[in-house]
Design goal:
This protein is of the alpha/beta class and 168 residues long. It has a domain at 3-62 and 111-167: DsrEFH-like (Hypothetical Protein Ychn, Chain: A, 3-Layer(aba) Sandwich). It is 36% helix and 22% strand. A five-stranded parallel β-sheet has the order 6-5-2-1-7, with helices on both faces. Strands 3-4 form a two-stranded antiparallel sheet. The longest helix has 16 residues, at 23-38. It is globular. The mean pLDDT is 90.
Length: 168
């Protein structure tokens, strides 16, 4: 009897719950999903609350320094931390977003939109949380094509047979 038959777990599967939609939080789930798919895993991503914004047709991702004490940006030959008080300065989120986008471009890192397209090409299952769609009054027309719409039960059905389940 195979392990999958005995346990109901598919060793070549992974799910990711995506709850955040800022520029810095968009990268981990898409990098993990596309890497896993490239390694032959079946991947399902469940986008809920602010993570749902990553499935919008129009992506305008930003970075916020607020509540992110670990944020250290390379600046003038050192790594400069961003204390929370900096968030009170008008325009700081725009400045940090510009800095992050420039760093991403300078380091040759793929834009989020490209990673999202790679996930679609790799047949990653993209599940938009229907409750969040309703709560934020999004319409399917606001979102990219090819999504699956479902709720917590849809995610749990995928997660209960997945070998790897991540919350990002």
């Amino acid at each position: 009897m195979s392990e999958q038959a005995a346990t109901g777990i598919d060793a070549n599967s992974m799910t990711i719950i995506v709850t955040k939609g800022s520029l810095d939080w968009a990268y981990p789930p898409f990098i993990l999903a596309t890497t896993a798919a490239a390694m032959g895993l079946e991947v399902a991503m469940f986008f809920t609350f602010y993570g749902l914004g990553l499935l919008m047709k129009d992506l305008d991702l930003k970075v916020s320094t607020l509540g992110n004490p670990a944020m250290k940006m390379p600046l003038m030959g050192m790594h400069m931390g961003m204390p929370n008080i900096v968030s009170a300065i008008p325009g700081i989120d725009s400045a940090t977003t510009r800095m992050m986008k420039n760093l991403i471009r300078k380091k040759g890192i793929a834009p989020v939109r490209e990673l999202r397209d790679l996930a679609i090409e790799a047949d990653v299952r993209l599940i938009a949380c229907q409750m969040t769609m309703d709560m934020f009054e999004y319409e399917p027309e606001d979102m990219i094509a090819g999504l699956e719409f479902g709720g917590a039960a849809t995610y749990i059905e995928a997660a209960k047979t997945s070998h790897i389940n991540l919350f990002v």
